[in-house]
Design the sequence.
């Protein structure tokens, strides 16, 4: 291993728990919905069959309305058989909302911008997207309707005769945004590991995403003071895996690519990007993540404590030599 002077870190799902927290909040919102809206269902399932297909079809996206049945195109002429129940099923609402969020995000007009700087479907459910740029202005406007539409369609997949649908969806969208903002947490021992490393190396933070949202997350982490430099893709209009964004952070840290290592959980963005920039790559492999046949990190860890062990072993090897 080279003699490193700097360690670059990804933020979301490397230092800060991101996707899992979004799912946890979605589960909380679904549980609230079960109780809050249980009296808004009508008893007629005929009304459901007549109204849900055209509503879902308006998005141009296919949804399976009868659970367990093969997916079929949904149109205003198609019939939809809905499960007749007296209440919301929270588990199914979580699954439906997550799937619909991804589908609408990919089909949305702001998808190219989101992909370019790394804004996820879940982040579009709670980010403010402040800024005067054309892209952020468009995303800010689009995301407001997107949030309500996600929950409208998720509710409709359970019952097409959901009364006061728009009010209910707006309430759930607002609740998700509020709760998600409140519930941010680091992976275990993140602060301790960073403190230890900051006494030996320059630490840099390289994160994709919208400027205001990533700054908000960084502030919530309580670790901002440990980084010598922070680069957010949305502030420069280019994101990982582009080498240019790595080079920007290296320049701010005053180190060369051979003197830095990059630690991140995303193979396509963090690891491939680091390798393209000539930076040693350390993949933090989260549970359930699969290896890639084409992207090969230099090292693999499963938590930040293992990073300390890796660096300690490197220092011992250098001393021995």
Sequence:
């Amino acid at each position: 291993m080279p003699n490193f002077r700097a360690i670059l870190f990804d933020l979301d799902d490397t230092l800060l728990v991101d996707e899992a927290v979004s799912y946890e909040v979605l589960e909380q919102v679904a549980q609230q919905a079960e109780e809050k809206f249980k009296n808004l269902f009508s008893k007629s399932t005929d009304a459901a069959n007549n109204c849900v297909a055209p509503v879902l079809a308006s998005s141009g996206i296919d949804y399976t309305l009868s659970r367990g049945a093969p997916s079929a195109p949904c149109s205003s002429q198609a019939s939809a058989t809905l499960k007749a129940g007296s209440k919301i099923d929270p588990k199914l609402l979580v699954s439906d909302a997550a799937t619909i969020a991804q589908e609408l995000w990919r089909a949305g007009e702001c998808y190219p911008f989101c992909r370019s700087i790394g804004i996820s479907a879940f982040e579009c459910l709670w980010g403010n997207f402040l800024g005067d740029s054309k892209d952020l202005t468009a995303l800010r406007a689009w995301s407001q309707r997107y949030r309500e539409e996600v929950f409208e369609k998720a509710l409709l997949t359970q019952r097409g005769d959901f009364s006061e649908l728009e009010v209910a969806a707006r309430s759930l969208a607002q609740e998700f945004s509020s709760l998600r903002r409140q519930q941010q947490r680091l992976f275990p021992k993140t602060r301790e590991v960073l403190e230890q490393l900051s006494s030996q190396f320059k630490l840099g933070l390289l994160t994709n995403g919208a400027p205001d949202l990533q700054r908000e997350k960084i502030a919530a982490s309580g670790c901002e003071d440990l980084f010598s430099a922070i680069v957010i893709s949305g502030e420069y209009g280019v994101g990982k895996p582009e080498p240019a964004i790595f080079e920007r952070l290296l320049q701010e840290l005053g180190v060369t690519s051979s003197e830095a290592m990059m630690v991140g959980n995303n193979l396509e963005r963090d690891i491939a990007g680091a390798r393209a920039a000539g930076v040693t790559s350390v993949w933090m492999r989260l549970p359930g993540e699969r290896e890639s046949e084409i992207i090969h990190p230099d090292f693999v860890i499963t938590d930040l404590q293992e990073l300390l062990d890796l660096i300690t072993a490197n220092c011992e090897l250098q001393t021995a030599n």
Observations:
- The chain is about 50% helix and 10% strand.
- Residues 42-84, 316-321 have pLDDT under 50 and may be disordered.
